[in-house]
Specification:
Layout lengths: L4 E5 L1 H18 L5 E7 L2 H10 L5 E10 L10 E5 L9 E9 L3 H11 L5 E9 L12 E5 L5 E2 L15 E4 L3
Parallel strand pairs: 2-3, 2-5, 5-6, 6-7
Antiparallel strand pairs: 1-9, 3-4, 8-9
Helix pairs in contact: 1-2
The chain binds 1-O-pyrophosphono-5-O-phosphono-alpha-D-ribofuranose (PRP) and hypoxanthine.
């Protein structure tokens, strides 16, 4: 079955904003190197587009986390499915995410990664849904704040579908 999807943020607007945030990050990290942590799977599209817009030297690593089963997603229990390949000690690190919703995933990740002694740790997200927050998370760079709607595209899925949409859409019928 395919769902009805309406456009919330167009492809042009997403690209324009990623360029803007990439330029800001480049200015903020001038003279430094930046280690980006892509949070799989949703963060992949945003990480690639963002990395292309950053002008300081960038290295990349990947991590996958998951809640313990869908039923208990709201329990806030998060586990590492795929850990980073490289240590963070002495690096300026930025976590790159597609969306912050309840904040549970990111509050867990930030705690874990801080414990690995990076020189600095910041968070960059494509989307933020502040109305849904359960756990407080400090967002350093955000492309768009969005209302409490279930969104897809640009890495975000509904039942693993629609990650490949080049815009941010709202699933009208679920
Ligand atoms: O703020 P939260 O309520 O914790 O939600 C945000 C998390 O949910 C999504 O990941 P998901 O678990 O759907 O995995 P995916 O990236 O593989 O789709 C998203 O990529 C964030 O990691
Ligand atoms: O709105 C959303 N869409 C897709 N995945 C998500 N994970 C948290 N919020 C969302």
């Amino acid at each position: 079955m395919s769902e009805k999807i309406s456009v919330l943020i167009t492809e042009e607007e997403v690209e324009r904003r990623i360029k803007e945030i990439g330029a800001k990050i480049s200015r903020d990290y001038a003279g430094k190197e930046l280690h980006l942590i892509c949070v799989l799977k949703g963060g992949v599209f945003f990480t690639c587009e963002l990395a292309k817009r950053i002008t300081v030297p960038v290295s990349l690593d990947f991590m996958s986390v998951s809640s313990y089963g869908d039923d208990t997603k709201s329990s806030g229990v998060v586990r590492i499915v795929k850990d980073l390949d490289q240590p963070l000690e002495g690096k300026d690190v930025m976590i790159v995410e597609d969306i912050i919703d309840s904040g549970r995933t990111l509050s867990y990740l930030i705690k874990v990664l801080k414990g690995r002694n990076p020189d600095s740790l910041r968070l960059c997200t494509l989307l933020d849904k502040p109305d849904r927050r359960v756990k407080e998370v400090k967002v350093d760079y955000c492309c768009f704040e969005i209302p409490d709607e279930f969104v897809v595209g640009y890495g975000l899925d509904y039942a693993q579908k629609y990650r490949n949409l080049p815009f941010i859409g709202v699933v009208e019928s679920r």
